[in-house]
Amino acid sequence: MKQIYHFNEGNTTMKDLLGGKGANLAEMTQLGLPVPAGFTITTTACMQFLQQDDYFEQSLKEEVLKAIYRLETETGKSFLADSSILLVSVRSGAKFSMPGMMDTILNLGLNDKKVRDFARLTTPSFAYDCYRRLMQMFGDVVYGISKEQFDQILQKFETTFDKAPSYFSLAEQQEVIKAYKQLFDKQHKNFPQDPLEQLFTAIKAVFQSWNNERAQVYRNLHDIPFDLGTAVNVQSMVFGNSGEKSATGVAFTRNPATGEKKLFGEFLPNAQGEDVVAGIRTPQTIDKLKQLLPVAYSDFIDYAKILEDHYKDMQDIEFTIENGKLYILQTRSGKRTAQAALNIALDLVDDGTITKKEALLRITPTMVEQLIHPIFDPAELKSAKVLAKGLPASPGAASGQIVFTAERAKELHEEGKKVILVRQETSPEDIEGMVVSEAIVTSRGGMTSHAAVVARGMGTCCVAGCEELIVNETTQTVTCKGQTLIEGSTISVDGTTGTIYQAELKTVRPTDNQNLQRLLNWADKEAKLMVRANAENIQDLSAAINFGASGIGLARTEHMFFGEKRILEMRRLILAEDETSFEVALQRLLDFQQDDFYHMLQTVGEKPMVIRLLDPPMHEFLPTDPQTIQQLAKQLEKAPEQITKQIAQLHETNPMLGHRGCRLGITEARIYQMQVKAIFTSAIKLTQAGYSVKPEIMIPLVAEEKELIEVKNSLLRTIKNLFEASNVEPFPFEIGTMIELPRACMTADRLAKHADFFSFGTNDLTQMTYGFSRDDIGKFLPIYKEKGILTQDPFQTLDQAGVGKLIQTAVKKARQTNPNMMIGVCGEVGGDPNSISFFQQAGVDYVSCSAYRIPAARLACGQAALNDCRIAEIAL
Amino acid sequence: MKQIYHFNEGNTTMKDLLGGKGANLAEMTQLGLPVPAGFTITTTACMQFLQQDDYFEQSLKEEVLKAIYRLETETGKSFLADSSILLVSVRSGAKFSMPGMMDTILNLGLNDKKVRDFARLTTPSFAYDCYRRLMQMFGDVVYGISKEQFDQILQKFETTFDKAPSYFSLAEQQEVIKAYKQLFDKQHKNFPQDPLEQLFTAIKAVFQSWNNERAQVYRNLHDIPFDLGTAVNVQSMVFGNSGEKSATGVAFTRNPATGEKKLFGEFLPNAQGEDVVAGIRTPQTIDKLKQLLPVAYSDFIDYAKILEDHYKDMQDIEFTIENGKLYILQTRSGKRTAQAALNIALDLVDDGTITKKEALLRITPTMVEQLIHPIFDPAELKSAKVLAKGLPASPGAASGQIVFTAERAKELHEEGKKVILVRQETSPEDIEGMVVSEAIVTSRGGMTSHAAVVARGMGTCCVAGCEELIVNETTQTVTCKGQTLIEGSTISVDGTTGTIYQAELKTVRPTDNQNLQRLLNWADKEAKLMVRANAENIQDLSAAINFGASGIGLARTEHMFFGEKRILEMRRLILAEDETSFEVALQRLLDFQQDDFYHMLQTVGEKPMVIRLLDPPMHEFLPTDPQTIQQLAKQLEKAPEQITKQIAQLHETNPMLGHRGCRLGITEARIYQMQVKAIFTSAIKLTQAGYSVKPEIMIPLVAEEKELIEVKNSLLRTIKNLFEASNVEPFPFEIGTMIELPRACMTADRLAKHADFFSFGTNDLTQMTYGFSRDDIGKFLPIYKEKGILTQDPFQTLDQAGVGKLIQTAVKKARQTNPNMMIGVCGEVGGDPNSISFFQQAGVDYVSCSAYRIPAARLACGQAALNDCRIAEIAL
């Protein structure tokens, strides 16, 4: 089997085999772009190597040798001999772009002898700069000798010789090399002098880097499979560091933060490779190149257009200019902010490049969530103290406590604190700390620096290159305008404007994104599933309607009992020892609820609103601390001991499996009757005032047909009486049930006979199906994830094999006895895009989620319909 | 539709329509036995009456009239006219015998005028005795005027006239009648003088009595459907109270306590109707009749044989002798003790009357449970103080506290106390108190008294007619040989010998019932399901093997950690803060467990033993009271505050859904490894000593395939190492999993790939499926049962529609990927006869239950196979 493809043998469709980078290098070669010659070792070769316990097959060695010979022929240079020296880069390249995650070695092929010849052919400072870089990268990637150790040596010589490395003499350069070698020796490592040994060792190291820790973290974060492997690209070097007419840079064909159709990039003159991305020197903007190297700039403009037109998407292009000649080293679909992604997609639709459906599939639900990311409350912004301004590298707004290392970020995050990672620059080692941070701030690096790229990918807000900040990582302080902040100080970061505030600021949600509205309207047209909201307070209900909810899928009534006055009446009711106190409390709660429902129904209007009757066990409303009990005793004119005794009587060993839901409605019918009375009295009043309303009453925790019949009949009697007393023409209403117990799923055909609608409560259903208490899984879930026993939290993403199977069974059974009933999902996973395809397949009518997840869910529903995602049929 | 059948129109197959009593009266009439003429009003007529809100249809009235005319013709007497007076009895008779539960009225047709004529035709004392009884029964049954009020009146006259009622003069008799009438008046009721009105009213009352409270309790207790209704038998009276040559009695064709083939019965001379059953006068044994009325006796012997041969079963026959002539009033299959049922069935097989299979179906699993009822420990009996001796009315042995009323029995039972009901005599009103009592003692009444019959039916031990006891229900005391006991005093009752002890005695289980062995061996031959035991201590394991378990289905290992020394080490392990303490504790627990398993495996031998690894959450092993914590702190040399803190950290909101089962085995693999090491080290030792062993390791609470793989692989490594180190030829063993979570059921096909066996844990599965915590359902389950929402406790009898459906699904899926795997049921319902048919149908291989339920389960398995019970197919 062919394990190596030269760039002129492949194309962009071969990403599985050649990785993204290799496939695009091949595609560009085929397009006739100036790509330095090279070849790609396949991902298959990588996986074979890893699966054979890192055994490098003889056949692969031979194929590499042949490819090197061919490269020598193509370039007219020699890798093995000493004249007309061919150096190569060795770079990883997986199917999915993983920026900074994998390893790169440049200038490979140099050794003590060849560097002298190379110095003669070019200049000593350039040749030794290359050699030094090779040794450093090789040491780092292959042997794990940290970059910092090499940097320290170099800095020492800079101090001793009192000049920058590019001005070092030959002798001085050789001293650096000597010191680098001593570093290798000290670590008992050998820098190989044989170019072929360098090459094979580097290839192995790239292969192995597929499994390094930061690669694993990134894959976990982005759900990238572990068995893809990485390809290895071996490419003849061109040198951006070969003098003043050389440069290296990165540019996007559009602005990756806003989507604006304007070249957006940066370059460093006389620099090599990763200098731009690593953010070590702050680069110049791409338009400066026009003055400096006008021919190369003009060529770049042309090639950038060719590439964007060819790929029909914004491109992220790496280039190098060697003595005035432009080379393209890489292109890929550029990472972008959610807003940019949206704007670009709509622009491309508008200019006819892509269709609306294509545009829909280019935006992820996560991006939509970012688009409604919080911004700082404009009211607070006016008076907030500005600390500094930097580059608006990734939009969003967040407050938190300063931390200076990834480790501290993780530690404080685990303690439940909100942290903001502040660093000179970030590196791939920081990835875990970045994941848990609310925001990222760097004092160095540009819009394409590591921090900026990763933050945009994660949707975390980021201000980069904020040079006003003096970050001292040793003393763990940041100084700005003479003021010093330490770990734990609170700041607020606005990634959209690049502003950092010295205060904790309130955030609000933006709601008027016209482009987003356009996209979501397209999504709604495609969607088979509707989206409702889980909301009960007026603010959330309004937001839900604004975000395009087709109704309310879950309004929880118990939340209304927690206000100060209400909780007292609720407690009076629970602790009542005679009929009078019970009825007094009940009447007062009725008054409260009536007022609540009036405003809720008024807000939601003619759209349906599912109102769930009281669900939690009674003891959840009672106090536990002696002081509150004392106070309550006074308020209720009871003995504290009596209250303590009653609380003890209500105690449950497993409250989740206890006296709650419809079980309460059956043992004490008056509470549900009060709630329904409150709902319908309000609804009747609103109807009389000319409003339309559509209440849907949901009975929770039904396990058995007779429970449903009992509660439903009791409620219907109450409703009938209210209508009769009112002389209002009865408006349409429904009575349905929550399906949240395995038994309800298995007997759904029976339940469906008595229910106008079903709504799956996936939270409780997941708890019962797994036997997991959400309150207690913290003790083993982290270990389960670590061991790969659970790859996803089943409370966030539907467990299709277990809970999903129960849902499929229930829908099928329900449709047997009640074919047209409305069936929804109102648990946490209702708003999860990964689960939405499954619900569509299962035959559900709508999903319901928190108001702020509605836009993402609408998109996901549109996409699910477009993909018509085939769910692996799990046989019953 | 025909609503009335005369006795010569029906037969014994018509029990649905005519009730058991009516069908048998018809059958006996057809056989030519001397049955007084009469007719039966059908159960259909009863249900129609009840469903039409007690409306007595005109058509039924007309049919009754016609039947009465025909009866007048048949008997040559007149019901309506005053000469040659025809009196009738009106008696209920449902399909299933419900002794004492329904109502009877005798002597119907008498009134003020006719009684005088009747007195002329017979004797005044006899005629008025009949009239008085009629008024009393009529008042009681129709108007609910209590018998006691009539009795008080009668007793007053007895005192005033200083003689027994049968010696009252005509005038005196009339005074009694007058007083009775005043009692009616006082209650604003009217005793009708019109015989037809009496008849119709009585028929209605019998119809209505189908729904009286004690009938409902009885039906609930015996699972008799509520929609059967009762028939009404109207029969011409014959008089056992018409003089010295008259008598009434009840006899069994065999001894209902032992099964001995010998007439067993009692009679009262010159008495009527319910006198014998009610136990008011202590009757004479049937053999005394031989001297008194030899012709009638000899006739009875003949008829008894005819009836037993005809019905192929022991008969319970009611008879009346009127002036020396024998009449048979009723026959039915006699209620009997379990031992008698068994002995009779085997006798009937031995003499060729019935087949082995018929015999198997005649014994209920409940009877088998009674056969292994406890007896008092013979060692204690020698020194126990005997209080009194009475009739051995229902076998068994029990200790408890004396109560004197059914109400107190219920109250104390609800407080968790064991009670023994002590009464002069019991009546149907006492039924609820009898149900909750450990034993029943009466000072009056014989072997066929209400107390005796009901106790035998329920399998409750009973000593009847213990005349040494003077029970004073007013003062709530019982006096015996000068000593007085009050409520709460402890006694022990041996229903097999009739002895009452004044002490609390230990009970033991009998094991050597040869007849039972025979029957169960027949059952095993028929059975499709095997029976295993849930047992872990040596005593229970031995008992299980003796009772014929085919293996151990569930040995719980956590029970072994609760001994004083063990719990300390377990606590040391849980609270260990360093590796050393953990390992020390683990090693000590290993030593304990090794010893445990050695003896367990030795006891069970070559039969398979399923050993479940540690299941409960760790906090269950920790103390909660401050004193024990203090003590533990000293033992472990830790600060009490530290222990309190650790306990708090281990606290769980819903322990049932928490960190337990295989979740423990995954987060801390060493505990399961220790257990498996203990099991296999012991097993290897036993193998070396020449024993056969077959351990089956069961992993609890598996929800996900990868959990099973993870734990299984870890255990297999440990086992492999032990075998390698031992040089023993590996013996067969299995590793399987408990199926006790809905997710395990829904993914059983995946789990089955990695499991050698499955065992359904129906307790937890029921908890999760319903979302019921067994610890907490007490708060609503009683109300659910009262409202008929749940008719059975799903933890006692399998919920077929929900939990059962999950089990069916799981078995089907499991067999898809692992067709030959062994599948068992080890939860509480595993031993429930009602559930066993379902498990057979579902394709389960064995059920497992506590050792003492094994015999009953073996029978149930045999019966299930014979019945090949069709389970209503619940569509998926």
From TrEMBL, chains A, B:
Domain PEP-utilising enzyme mobile intervals: 417-498
Domain Pyruvate phosphate dikinase AMP/ATP-binding: start-end pairs: 16-54, 58-293, 302-342
Domain called PEP-utilising enzyme C-terminal: residue spans: 514-863
Catalyzed reaction equations: pyruvate + phosphate + ATP = phosphoenolpyruvate + AMP + diphosphate + H(+)
Metal-binding keyword on record: yes
EC nos: 2.7.9.1
Known cofactor(s): Mg(2+)
Family in the record: Belongs to the PEP-utilizing enzyme family.
Protein known as: Pyruvate, phosphate dikinase
Organism name: Tetragenococcus solitarius
High-level lineage: Bacteria, Bacillati, Bacillota, Bacilli, Lactobacillales
